[in-house]
Every structure is written in structure tokens, then in C-alpha cells.
Amino acid sequence: MFADTFKGKKVLITGNTGFKGSWLTVWLLKQGAQVFGYSNSVLTEPAMYRVLNLEQHITQCWRDVRDKDTFAEFLETTRPDFVFHLAAQAIVSTSYNNPWETISTNVMGTASVLEALKNYSHPLTAVIITSDKAYDNVEWIWGYRENDRMGGKDIYSGSKGAAELVIKSYWHSFLKHKENILIAVARAGNVIGGGDWSKDRIVVDTIKAFANNKPVEIRSPFATRPWQHVLEPLSGYLTLAKQLNENHKLNGETFNFGPRAEQLKTVKQLVEDIAKYWEIQDPVRITDTQPFNEATLLKLNCDKAQALLSWHATLNYDQTVKLTANWYKDFYSQDVDMYGLTLNQIEYYERCNANPT
Ligand SMILES: NC(=O)c1ccc[n+]([C@@H]2O[C@H](COP(=O)([O-])OP(=O)(O)OC[C@H]3O[C@@H](n4cnc5c(N)ncnc54)[C@H](O)[C@@H]3O)[C@@H](O)[C@H]2O)c1
């Protein structure tokens, strides 16, 4: 899918120990990249990073992304060809409990990466990951386009919107004048897939309940979400990095990476479809409590990614559910080579991408 773009190249991933960072690491290693990770912790137990023993395959730096001097030093010593910035406090509910940590990590952490790029003098292609939640969610029915307004009523969304403003001002003030730096921004929505154990994510709650042979409690059964497999935005980030590297006209651009329209299903439907793989009777218990305000609908318009990058989502809803359920099922069966399984799922994705349904 990405030719030999990453083969033999050095790639630095911030937030590499997280859910997306772990999948991205495996995909880049598969392509022959040398991966450098920069994270301050492993946030969950279990964690895909540990399950796959990724520390054995990469060079890891255990530091805080807000520590700008340390990050700049790591950049200087590793001299990567590509940077993917994913480090963030990524959980909406946590942002209510810990707004300061969320804002400082997501805004100042991004500023720290940009500051290092501002002072960096070697060739480098960078993709900065924010979120669909960076958009000012006016709860309309249309998909959001890259030039729509930034905003965010909850702290997490606001921190991502603020990070976008910081990126824009660094770009206009410094980065666009630097010939050695190519940079672009990627926005995607909530993703599902094996290997996530973060809190307050529906698939994680579902899997944890099913692993204990219990029904999952859900508070908004009829809320619809565009369920997207983690490999979809990652394919977008990698496509963007590849094409940005080849086509400097993409420098400074922002791209949405969203699922197909048909992926919109209710929370209840998703849970019931995952349950089919676990043979659980009565998988859902509905509760009516809503512990925090979360925006109800946000759809991305991905025409720009299609037009300029020829990127499109690959998996249909059934494939998305199947990959997700099978990953966890194999994990909880305990005798499966999870690195091998993850590679198989990436290869399956690549085959589906080459032969779209
Ligand atoms: N998972 C999703 O559904 C989703 C949706 C939209 C956008 N995103 C964005 O994608 C990126 C990755 O998301 P994820 O789901 O993998 O998140 P995650 O919570 O699984 O991982 C976050 C990573 O950031 C690291 N990190 C957090 N604070 C740090 C700090 N101060 N210094 C250094 N490292 C720090 C963690 O150690 C971890 O490696 C984030 O920017 C997130 O906002 C995720």
C-alpha cells in the first residue's frame, strides 16, 4: 500500500505505547522501518504494547512530551525521516476529572513537538494527529470539512481544537518557511479494534464484560456512532506521510479520515454483533445514566482525502466487527501468538484495500 516509503527509514512515534501507537508500530515494522518510541508510560493493564512485547522491537524513550528540551534532544539524536505525533490524554471522561493534565498534554505537548521541529535542521516529514472532536460540533447532519471551525465544548475536544490553533500558528509563523520540514495534520474519529483497554470505550467495556461471561451495561443504547477500525485512520496517516513526502504541495494541509457512511450503527447493535463471536446470551443491560456530556453526532467529510490522496476507507461494518471481536477472543484464549495475529489482521486489511468490496 505504501510501496517502499518506510523501508529502512527511521520513524519516531510519540504516544507509541497507546492503542493506535501500538498498531502503527507493528505496521511500520512490517514495512521495514526502524521505529523510535517516545511516551511517558503505558496507560493500561493489559496493554497491546506489552502483549506484543513491542519494546523488544524498537528504541524506546520514556519521557514526557511536554518536556520540550528532552523531546528536541531525542529528535536530534535519532534523526528520524518521519514523525507521527500521537501522544495525548485521549479520554473524554478523564478530561472532566483532570482538565489541567488534558490541556497541558494535548496543547503544550503538541507545542513541544512543533518547537522541536522549528529548530530542527534535517529533512523530516511529520504527521500530527488531532481528532474529529477538534471541530466546533454544531450537531448538524452534514459531514465536517477540513476548513470548518475549530471548537470543543468539553475539555478533551477543546484541547484538540486548541492544539489545532497552535499547529496553525506554528505553521504560518515558522514551519512553512523551513525547506527541510514537511508537515500535515490528520483528524479521525473514534476507532475500535483489538488491543484497546482504555476506560469508557464501549468495545473495551463490552469485551471485559464478555470475558467474565457477563452482559455489558450501556447508557445510550440508541446513540449511533460511525464505527471505524483502527487500521483505517492509520492507513490514512501512512498514506498522508508517504504522499506528503513525495508531493510538497500537501505541506501544511489537514485531512479527515473517516469511515464509510454505512458504518453508522447504534451502540446496542455493535454490542450484539460482537456478542455473536462470543456466544453470549442477552449481552446487553441498559442503564439510563449519562455521567458526562458527550456530543451526540459528528461525521467527517473525507472528500479531500479521496481527491488529493486517493484515500478511502477499506473495511465494511461486518469486517470491522469481525477483526475486533476475533483479536480479543484470541487474546483471552491465551495461547495465541498475538504479534502474529496482529500482523495477519494488517495483511488482511492490505488485501481488502487492494480488492475493495
Ligand atoms: N482512539 C481513538 O478513538 C481516537 C480518536 C480520535 C483521535 N485520537 C487521537 O489519536 C491519538 C492516539 O490515541 P490512542 O487511542 O492511541 O490513545 P491512548 O490513550 O491509547 O495512548 C496515548 C499515548 O500517549 C502517551 N502519552 C500520554 N500523555 C503523555 C505525555 N504527557 N508524554 C508522553 N506521552 C504521553 C501514552 O503513554 C500513550 O502512549 C491521540 O492523539 C488521540 O487523541 C484517538
Describe the structure.
This protein has twelve helices and 13 strands. With 357 residues, it is an alpha/beta fold. The chain has a domain of 236 residues: NAD(P)-binding Rossmann-like Domain (Rossmann fold). The strands form four sheets. A seven-stranded parallel β-sheet has the order 3-2-1-4-5-6-11, sandwiched between helices. Strand 1, helix 1 and strand 2 form a beta-alpha-beta unit. The chain is globular, with a radius of gyration of 19 Å. The protein starts with 9 loop residues before the first strand and ends with a helix. The mean pLDDT is 94. It binds nicotinamide-adenine-dinucleotide. The site of nicotinamide-adenine-dinucleotide has 28 residues, from helix 1 and helix 5. Nicotinamide-adenine-dinucleotide (NAD) binds next to helix 1 and helix 5.
